[in-house]
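User: I need a structural model of Cytochrome c oxidase assembly factor 3 from Cervus elaphus hippelaphus for a docking pre-check later this week. Nothing fancy, just the predicted structure tokens so I can convert them on my end. Input:
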Amino acid sequence: MAAPGAGDPVDAKSGKAPLAQRIDPTREKLTPAQLQFMRQAQLAQWQKTLPQRRTRNIVTGLGIGALVLAIYGYTFYSVSQERFLDELEDEAKAARARALERASGH
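Assistant: Understood. Predicted structure tokens for Cytochrome c oxidase assembly factor 3:
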């Protein structure tokens, strides 16, 4: 009987196919054909998930852009509603007018 994962398509005891094993190509000696097959498998897996990843990236980008525009718009809106400086300027004008009246009245 062969070792588990050594080419047996189906495990005789459980009837299930063996799971893929992780291989570290820097530690294990692999043939150029095995390395090429690993690259092809990685490329196929990457291309398979590319549309989903692209859609997710577009949605994330649009969400972040909408948030930035909302903050920018709210900032302009709140600044345009702000009357704090106008009130200070009115008070300063009134104080100057009172000071001029006192100076000319004495």
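Before docking, keep this in mind: The radius of gyration is 37 Å.
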